[in-house]
């Protein structure tokens, strides 16, 4: 494990821990060649044990997803016996949850600005045949330009039979889980994602969750009761629940905006999206991929596209054509 960590340190300067979860932690790091800040997610394989498929799910999903509101994977190393390292996009704005708590509640306009980005990310991952299945405020981070980034694809599903395929595994946070999911019924991942997104909107607007109770069974009763004036998103009957397509141009989301929610990826718009995205999933997400994607990110933020040749006397930008 040490030698791979050593190898990683050749490319990244690792700084303080910015997040600690069950079997993983996230550290702030700097990509030496580009000088860009990144998030280093370190997962312990031993304690992960049966959860290894979850890591594989997360890495496979993130290799195929490239969108302005989805956290970017730059590089991953699985080879080490004990640890798995993922280099991900750094979001300096922190968790959306913390942002809401600190502001107590958001204005309707601010909620709409964030919610359009949330719907954009959900519409995009569904268009790629992925269902996230654990949508909640803790999984949204704010980047340097007030853009929301969706993270944690560890329990997402890309059903072989396509998006209409019924799933069975019950996962995610109960407070955001759709009725059909907590009833243990066969459910459609994307439809359940819409429910969670509706609960998220409620939390954004009201500053608290619609179905909260320390006693989970009471919370389930509230979820099943379905007595609230919320429109079509937290609709108990999955067949009558609004689809993400109809959300894109919903009147409330259009208020103050002239256009429906743009959900296509803007990351590689200049090239033919198909070939690039196809290419992306073929890359081996090593140091070369990380350097390329981080230079692309620098360019898209209008920063000079330079490699830092770090030498004994500090960093000297290498101008590359
Ligand atoms: C906390 N914080 C404060 C500021 Br300012 C920036 C951050 C921050 O963590 N930014 C950040 N940038 N990129 C990332 C993060 C956090 N982050 C994460 O992946 N964070 C998740 C947060 N999960 C949500 C529910 C349970 C844990 C995480 C997963 C495992 C262990 C620790 C943290 C990534 C890598 C994608």
Summarize the model shown:
This protein is an alpha+beta fold and 321 residues long. Helices cover 37% and strands 19% of the residues. The strands form four sheets. Strands 1-2-3-5-4 form a five-stranded antiparallel beta sheet, with helices on both faces. The chain has a three-stranded antiparallel beta sheet with strand order 6-7-8. It has a two-stranded antiparallel sheet with strand order 9-10.
Could you name the key traits of this structure?
12 strands, binds the ligand Cn1cc(Br)cc1C(=O)Nc1[nH]nc2c1CN(C(=O)N[C@H](CN1CCCC1)c1ccccc1)C21CC1, single chain, alpha+beta, 321 residues, five-stranded antiparallel sheet
Structural notes for this entry:
The chain has 321 residues and is of the alpha+beta class. Helices cover 37% and strands 19% of the residues. The protein has 12 helices and 12 strands. Strands 1-2-3-5-4 form a 5-stranded antiparallel beta sheet, sandwiched between helices. A 3-stranded antiparallel beta sheet has the order 6-7-8. It has a two-stranded antiparallel ribbon with strand order 9-10. Helix 5 packs antiparallel against helix 7. The longest helix has 20 residues, at 108-127. It is globular, with a radius of gyration of 20 Å. The relative contact order is 0.13. The site of the ligand Cn1cc(Br)cc1C(=O)Nc1[nH]nc2c1CN(C(=O)N[C@H](CN1CCCC1)c1ccccc1)C21CC1 has 22 residues, from strand 1, strand 2, strand 3, strand 5 and strand 6.
């Amino acid at each position: 494990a040490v030698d791979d960590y050593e190898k990683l340190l050749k490319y990244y300067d690792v700084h303080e821990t910015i997040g600690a979860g069950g079997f993983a932690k996230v550290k702030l790091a700097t990509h030496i060649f580009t000088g860009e800040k990144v998030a280093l997610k370190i997962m312990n394989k031993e304690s992960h044990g049966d959860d290894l498929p979850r890591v594989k799910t997360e890495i496979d999903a993130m290799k195929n997803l490239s969108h302005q509101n989805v956290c970017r994977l730059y590089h991953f190393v699985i080879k080490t016996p004990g640890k798995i390292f993922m280099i991900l996009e750094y979001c300096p704005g922190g968790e959306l949850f913390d942002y809401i708590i600190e502001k107590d509640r958001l204005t309707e306009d601010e909620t709409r600005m964030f919610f359009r980005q949330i719907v954009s990310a959900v519409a995009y991952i569904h268009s790629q045949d992925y269902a996230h299945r654990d949508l909640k405020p803790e999984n949204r981070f704010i980047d340097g330009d007030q853009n929301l980034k969706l993270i944690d694809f560890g329990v997402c599903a890309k059903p072989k039979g396509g998006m209409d395929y019924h799933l069975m595994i019950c996962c995610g946070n109960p407070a955001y889980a759709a009725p059909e999911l907590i009833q243990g019924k066969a459910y459609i991942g994307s439809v359940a994602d819409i429910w969670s997104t509706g609960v998220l909107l409620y939390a954004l607007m009201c500053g608290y969750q619609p179905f909260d109770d320390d006693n989970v069974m009471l919370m389930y009763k509230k979820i099943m009761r379905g007595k609230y004036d919320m429109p079509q998103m937290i609709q108990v009957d999955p067949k009558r629940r609004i689809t993400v397509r109809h959300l894109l141009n919903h009147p409330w989301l259009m208020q103050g905006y002239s256009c429906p929610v743009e959900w296509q990826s803007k990351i590689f718009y200049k090239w033919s999206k198909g070939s690039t995205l196809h290419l992306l999933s073929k890359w081996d997400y090593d140091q070369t991929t990380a350097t390329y994607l981080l230079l692309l990110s620098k360019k898209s933020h209008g920063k000079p596209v330079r490699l830092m040749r770090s030498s004994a006397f500090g960093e000297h930008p290498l101008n590359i054509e």
